Amino acid sequence: MHTLPKHSFYTMRLARGCQLCQEGAKLVLLITGMCSSQCFYCPLSEKKRGRDVVYANELLVKSDNDIIEEAELIEAEGAGITGGDPLDVIDRTVHAISLLKEYFGEDFHIHLYTASFDEKKVARLERAGLDEIRFHPDAKEWHRIEDTGFKSLIKKITICKGMEIPLIPHLKEETVHLLECVDAYGLDFINVNELEFSPTNVEALDALGYVAKSDESAAVKGSEEMAYELVELGLVTPFHYCSASFKDGVQLRKRIERRARNVARPYELITEDGTLLKGIILVEREAMAQIKREFDIGNDMMAWNEEKQRVETSPFILEEIAGYLPYKCYIIEEYPTADRLEVERTPLP
Fold first, then answer.
1. Are 164 and 192 spatial neighbours (Cβ–Cβ below 8 Å)?
2. Nearest-5° Cα angle at 228, 224 to 231
3. CATH code of the domain covering residue 253
4. What residue numbers bound the domain in which 342 lies?
5. Most exposed among 23, 24, 115, 137, judged by the fewest C-beta atoms under 10 Å?
6. How far is CA 326 from CA 208, 332, 348, in A?
7. Could you give the maximum distance between any two Cα atoms of the chain, in Å?
8. What is the pLDDT along the chain (349 residues), one digit of tens a residue?
């Protein structure tokens, strides 16, 4: 067994998609929020779940160019197409694969998640250039996976194919049955993920008696322990456990570090976590010119943010001048993502 940071591990080898995710090198392309499976544990946010929207990382996509630009901003070496279920919008998904392959080249690695066993749709994905497919069988089928068409489908797929599911403690018996069955199907890998609370699944998980494993984590207590129990099954298929903290502390962190390098303005400081630190002044735009003149601040070190209606500058500059300004001033930390999520705000005197 090979250990990874944040209690993650794998046996034998990692899927190529996982290798690139670990480096923050994968564009996350949510091709639709629509899905026919309706899994009770689905963590998708309210703005995406059940909605036919497209997001490239945190960017709401309005054109093909949005997808390309977001991929370039994180210096992507590949993409993970997710949902919802991408096969529910198969024409759009095939177009996205072709778009990315044509722009970035055949070496741009694309993997995809689906709960569908539709052979014709999967064949279309292969022809379009998909590199890796990850099946997520409906949990209601885990105890009878041998009675579905999954085995025959796997035998027909020529690209890298695997299965990826969450670890749900009260479904341990069904999970063991599922893993032991598919271990003989010829999969290239099996990925299991730590179950997590989210605003959209908390009610369902709470009803089942689940609690968070700590005050600092959204992961479900007992899920990680299940991974270490399942590895004892001795599966012949490569087995990979990915913890919730690995996704946030490694994958997401490295992806936002890549984006920060390309979007940070001269006055924004990139932190060790890949977030951006800056000073903001809550004032009308017209006051900015006067502030620049009075304190001899160059144009590259102070700017107006039209979307958020505020003046932005270096945190170091603002610390020096805040005491002389009759306006509310703050040092803020935010993600370098398209939504610029603010994580901390500290007022200056």
1. yes
2. 135
3. 3.20.20.70
4. 265-348
5. 23
6. 53, 19, 11
7. 76
8. 899 999 999 999 999 999 999 999 999 999 999 999 989 999 999 999 999 999 999 999 999 999 999 999 999 999 999 999 999 999 999 999 999 999 999 999 999 999 999 999 999 999 999 999 999 999 999 999 999 999 999 999 999 999 999 999 999 999 999 999 999 999 999 999 999 999 999 999 999 999 999 988 999 999 999 999 999 999 999 999 999 999 999 999 999 999 999 999 999 999 999 999 999 999 999 999 999 999 999 999 999 999 999 999 999 999 999 999 999 999 999 999 999 999 999 999 8
Q: Are 81 and 157 in the same domain?
A: yes
Q: How far apart are CA 214 and CA 210, in angstroms?
A: 12
Cα–Cα distance measured from residue 263 to residue 336, given in angstroms and rounded to the nearest whole number:
7
Closest CA to 332 of 281, 293, 283, 289: 281
- For residues 282 and 315, state if they share a domain: yes
User: Which of the listed residues 227, 259, 291 is the one where a domain comes to its end?
Assistant: 259
Burial of 55 (0-12, 13-18, 19+ CB in 10 A): buried
**Domain termination residue (choose one: 259, 291, 317):** 259
Query: 167 and 209: one domain?
Result: yes
Distance of CA 245 to the CA centre of its chain: 12
Q: How many domains would you assign to the chain?
A: 2
**Residues 225, 79 within the same domain:** yes
Q: Residue 159: which residues within 8 A CB-CB, separation 6 or more?
A: 126, 130, 131, 132, 133
Structure letter (DSSP) for residue 220: B
User: Is residue 29 within 8 Å of 82, Cβ to Cβ?
Assistant: yes
